[in-house]
Write a structure and sequence with these properties.
By secondary structure, the chain is α+β, with helices and mostly antiparallel strands. Helices cover 40% and strands 15% of the residues. Keywords: ATP-binding, DNA-binding, Nucleotide-binding, Transcription, Transcription regulation.
Length: 690
């Protein structure tokens, strides 16, 4: 249901005058808050505010000093970006920090934001709803707050316990439609900084840390250093600075894009607060044409552990002159959360994957962290766990403008793989096309190259790949000319990479180059709580493709699917859902008897009583013990061979396997093997000097 500001006004008037809730004109959670306010005797016309409790504020700020250090950089960024107030509350809804672009604004700092005192608002509703919320205009219970627009996102622990929130409030104009997403992302970024602790300056070393916020903002934004060199920008800014990211970080001047009528020094002289938008002249293309882009906010962002930079926020299409929302955001309209695709990117690449378990949330957090950073990633996991999906998510969230190019290293013969990757010059070999061919390395320039099944790549070709990664250049077959590349590589394998290294089937130096960030994707059986979400998505997606009615799967069928171990992981689950829809015509008709017999049998065993379940479990445990014994013996044989080849030198063996010596020692002890520690005179003298 769609709600508008006019609806909210009509509903508020009716409620204040008669206590009647107009259910078709106000959101249920807002109506429930109004009812609570009325029951507590709060006057909607009251204008009093709690006074700042200075002593309690001092105590809270001392207690939450670490939280303040982690949140301040992100809050300062938001204040500049939105020109709005940003505040922090603890679990008691006490405001212990507030940053504002206004000279005097301290109304809520050092006070409790409780419903019984201040009425319905984003700061009070977030504590009740325990989820991100937005409040606009006449949704506020007290008339004095109805010129506000606000959003809030909670801080929750793993058990769902609420322990505070971040609020963004604008007393002058409606917040942009993306404000709620910005608040949610800001909470995640502050949690990253808090977890990093003393290492947080490493995250703040460049403006890439703030890229998720830039990507969400829909109007042009530019970040420059104190000398006017471009550090970062969002996609809408590309129209005005089209090739800024083709230069190394912080090397291209904004002056290259400004018309002669204005220089960056002119912009630096601007005060933080502009009374009205300032037209900034930009050059358009190679012609002498000039177009003006209104600058609505300009100011320095600085903080502990980070180099200061200047944020330039320009007026977007449809944005008000005061820098407000670009479109009328209906009061209280609930923003739809996009579905996440678990196995394939949908049209438009606007979603990534589905997963709400802690195992998958950890993957999602890591993807968000590494995506903006140009570093190679190695994805490990069983077949069907979604390695290519994660690779595509990394590319999409990276902001790289080049294409995502996927190559399956195990699906092509050696000679074809070489030409596929490197390309060739015309006439390079018998049968080659006269015009030659562009390889995948070159085709992915500026984007991301996904090397699936990297463990299948021949060893001699691994040497060539290593050179490409080290030198960031590629040479076509039959050519002597190297071409420079701007390339990011994401590799994946379902094999034991350490075992491949030990067997000399994979180069350790290539492994180190590829695994700057390593992600192990969890098997579906380790995140069973995601199965109903995945089934729902596949059901909806495949029902549309198969032209059958979309109806939910029965609860007992979902439970049966949860009980299966899914050796083929998410890919196997999708295939089963598709088969069921083809056979039964719609989700509601898919009973347990419609499932493949091996899934139905497992479900039946689990439901047949303690004895059958115990027998099945014991049988599975026996098989697991046998498999573990085989794996241990294979590892013992491989490791014994490596120990012999390297003369028992534990440091050399550890370096060869890419693990720490202590970890190797523990593993050797577990497998009943021995090695020795070699320290020569030079190493001893180095240790003494150190």
């Amino acid at each position: 249901m769609t709600y508008s500001d006019e609806h909210a006004l009509e509903a508020w008037k009716a409620f204040v005058s008669s206590g009647t809730i107009m259910e078709d004109k106000v959101r249920p959670e807002v109506a429930a808050s109004w009812l609570r306010c009325r029951a507590m005797g709060l006057d909607p016309w009251s204008s009093t505010f709690e006074k700042e409790n200075t002593s309690l504020l001092r105590e809270k700020r001392e207690r939450f000093a670490a939280s303040l250090r982690a949140t301040t950089p992100v809050m300062k960024f938001l204040v500049r970006l939105l020109g709005s107030n940003v505040s922090l509350m603890d679990g008691e809804n006490f405001v212990f920090e507030l940053l504002s672009p206004m000279m005097m604004y301290s109304r809520t700092l050092g006070t409790f934001m409780r419903e019984k005192d201040v009425g319905t608002g984003n700061a009070t509703l977030v504590a009740t709803e325990r989820r991100p919320v937005r409040m606009d205009g006449f949704e506020h219970y007290r008339a004095i707050a109805q010129h506000y627009s606000g959003v809030a996102a909670p801080y929750m622990d793993v058990n769902g316990r609420y322990f505070g929130a971040m609020n963004i409030n604008s007393p002058l104009q409606s917040l942009p439609p993306e404000a709620l997403d910005l608040c949610v992302e800001a909470v995640k970024l502050t949690q990253e900084l808090f977890a990093a602790g003393a290492r947080s300056p490493l995250l703040l070393a460049t403006t890439e840390f703030f890229k998720p916020l830039l990507n969400l903002y829909r109007s042009p934004v530019l970040l420059v250093d104190m000398e006017g060199r471009i550090l970062n920008a969002n996609a809408p800014m590309r129209t005005w600075c089209p090739d800024w990211d083709e230069f190394s970080y912080g090397s291209q001047s904004i002056g290259a894009y400004l018309a002669k009528a204005m220089t960056f020094k002119d912009m630096l002289r601007l005060s933080d607060g502009l009374n009205e938008p300032l037209p900034v002249p930009f050059k358009r293309g190679r012609s002498r044409a000039v177009a003006e882009l209104p600058l609505v906010r300009c100011g320095k962002v600085e903080g502990e552990g980070m180099d200061p930079f200047i944020m330039l926020v320009f007026q977007g299409e449809g944005e008000s002159a005061g820098g407000g929302s670009r479109e009328a955001a209906p009061a209280g309209k609930k923003k739809e959360t996009p579905r996440r695709d678990a196995t394939a990117m949908p049209t438009g690449a606007t979603v990534d994957y589905i997963g709400e378990t802690e195992e998958w949330k950890a993957i999602d957090a890591l993807v968000r962290k590494v995506a903006p950073i140009r570093t190679n990633v190695l994805l490990l996991g069983e077949t069907g766990t979604g390695k290519e999906v994660v690779a595509r998510a990394i590319h999409r969230r990276s902001g790289r403008k080049g294409p995502f190019v996927a190559v399956n290293c195990g699906a092509l013969p050696r000679d074809l793989l070489a030409t596929e990757l490197f390309g060739y010059e015309g006439g390079a070999f018998t049968g080659a096309r006269d015009e030659g061919a562009t390889g995948k390395f070159e085709f992915a320039d500026g984007g991301t190259l996904f090397l699936d099944e990297i463990g299948e790549m021949p060893v001699d070709m691994q040497v060539s790949l290593l050179r490409v990664l080290q030198e960031s250049t590629v040479t076509k077959l039959g050519s002597n000319t190297a071409k420079a590349l701007d390339l990011r590589v994401v590799a994946a394998t379902n094999q034991n990479i350490q075992q491949l290294i030990a067997q000399k089937q994979f180069r350790s130096d290539l492994y180190y180059r590829l695994s700057m960030v390593e992600m192990s994707l969890p098997q579906l059986r380790k995140r069973r709580d995601d199965i109903p979400l995945l089934v729902e998505y596949f059901n909806e997606q495949l029902s549309a493709q198969l032209n059958v009615p979309f109806t939910p799967f029965p609860a007992e069928t979902l439970q049966a699917l949860r009980s299966y171990s899914w050796p083929g992981n998410v890919r196997e689950l999708r295939n089963v859902v598709e088969r069921c829809l083809i056979m039964d015509g719609e989700g509601a008709k898919v009973g347990t008897s419609s499932l493949p017999f091996y899934i139905e049998n497992v479900a039946s065993s689990a439901a047949s009583g303690p004895m059958m379940s115990l027998e099945w479990a014991l049988g599975s445990e026996l098989l697991q013990r046998q498999a573990a014994a085989l794996r241990a013996e294979e590892e013992r044989r491989s490791l014994r061979q490596t120990v012999a080849e390297l003369d028992g030198d534990i440091d050399r063996i550890a370096r060869h396997l890419g693990i720490a010596p202590d970890e190797l020692s523990d593993r050797l002890e577990q497998l009943g093997l021995r090695a020795r520690i070699v320290i020569d005179d030079e190493e001893i003298s180095d240790c003494i000097r150190w």
